[in-house]
Amino acid sequence: MQQNKPNSEDVLTQCKKSGLRRTKALQCLVETLLTKDSPMTLAELAEHPDLADICDRATVFRLLQRLIEKGIIRRLGLHERAAYFTLLIPGRHQDFLICTSCGDIEPIKAACPVHALEKEIATKTGYANLYHELEFFGTCPQCC
Amino acid sequence: MQQNKPNSEDVLTQCKKSGLRRTKALQCLVETLLTKDSPMTLAELAEHPDLADICDRATVFRLLQRLIEKGIIRRLGLHERAAYFTLLIPGRHQDFLICTSCGDIEPIKAACPVHALEKEIATKTGYANLYHELEFFGTCPQCC
DNA sequence: ATACCTGCAAAGTCTTTGCCTTAGG
DNA sequence: CCTAAGGCAAAGACTTTGCAGGTAT
Questions:
Q1: Cα–Cα distance, B102 to B69 (Å, whole number)
Q2: Which of A78, B17, B30, B126 is the most exposed place for a label (fewest CB within 10 A)?
Q3: How many CB pairs under 8 A join A and B?
């Protein structure tokens, strides 16, 4: 089981296998997502210095769409107006702690206690492709 | 501990205590939220036959805002473009199972396994007013 | 060569606000 | 009577798409 952060080549290989072309924008997007380990919005990505210089926001948007289709990234809600995107890393699951005041998002280190329930739900309800999102919201120490 | 669904008078009393005026729109909004036990979007509420006849969408929006401020309802993400709103019922916590294909949302009956972790996070991180949202996503049997 | 990708600009969708009028307490 | 609440319409915020031209394979 691969627990550690993949490098961008791993992800780009996966992209190519899924039928995506290796464009400059795709490479840069993947690297940007890998650099930050918490989810990012479309705006954050499109305005990131590296990406802003080489492609349009619409391109980032369409890349994200394709990567979601291919199961390489996931779109998260996270309680904000804008959607967040995060790489799906095999063998890893992330839950988040979010400050409702300043909007800070940090991944939670502790083990996720939900997997048993997830299996139970899969069995009882007949839902397929089950996954979950768990977010904690509160006021962070700086905002208190 | 009050586990059962309150009636609209209970909620309206709470509203009045919080300083809200008892308007027709507020009464109707509360009743509409109580009728459906899963979260609703602004559009669903504003277009609901009962509410559509007596008030404008902006009114519903502003009522929802005030009710959130007063801690009477909560805004949820739920992975859709639109925000969802749900009454906060004392002593009750809801997690959701959401079909990524048809968008169906159903509350989960099983006990939520997250409360212990929530306490641990509160202690370790110093976050205040902590609460969480847990959603399961998958393809429902009808959509499979 | 050709199917996929991109930029630009415009259109959508949902939310939020301003301003003036109405009505609860 | 005085201030919160409501209606209407316009502006914002974020996302999504059409089309013409560019590029990886």
A1: 31
A2: B17
A3: 110
